[in-house]
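Please, why this fold?
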Amino acid sequence: MGNSLRKEKNYSYIEVGEGTPIVVLHGLMGGLSNFEAVKHFFSHKGYKVIIPELPIYTMSLLKTNVKSFAKYLHDFIEFKGLKEVILLGNSLGGHIGLYHTKLYPEKVKGLIITGSSGLYESAMGSGYTKRSDYEVIKKKAQDVFYDPEVATKDIVDEVYATVNDRNKLVKTLAIAKSAIRHNMAKDLPKMDTPTCIIWGKNDNVTPPEVAEEFHELLPDSDLYWIDKCGHAAMMEHPDEFNKILDAWLTKREF
């Protein structure tokens, strides 16, 4: 991914650039490399971009939930000695960012969510009954994107390996249940952190009406759309994603 993974204490992360910290949170099946374009662009724009590996498959089953991940993120931010951070999360990462902001609002000066869970889950962990069928998993991976070609063989292989690892599958299902349990509809109106919502108009996982509901419920939010785009805008349209985010950060004077 261009920059080597640092390993310190219980944490593995990538860190590049200097300036205001942007902490990037990957999704359930998402690797750190999904944010390659974000990392490159913003580390050259006066930001310190930090991408931690979230302990999605390494926590005990009892702690495999959104709240525990949010607390892990808090501990990581404390470990790094960061004061006020900007959080950027995709899918489950967006949900973790939102939950962390609910618990520790004083730590977060800005929040960016894209394809985030937290209001609506199209059963993230379902549909794996035929998990040994590579073609079924390939189709499921392709459905995440507007353009199925974005789901490279490497991405499909990684998803296939994950769902065919019994330990990981059990935890994937636990996270899916936790995401439903930690619905944030009642919390969002009390959260006044400036929030940038960037959404694919063709997102099948968290459909466009989810973005509209986030925008309606969050008191200080801006909503931006990317056309011909699925669940991972920063991968499918990296240049447009970065342009939107850069303009928002400038507008908000971050």
Residues 121 and 181 are 10 Å apart (CA to CA). The first helix runs from residue 36 to 43. The mean pLDDT is 93.
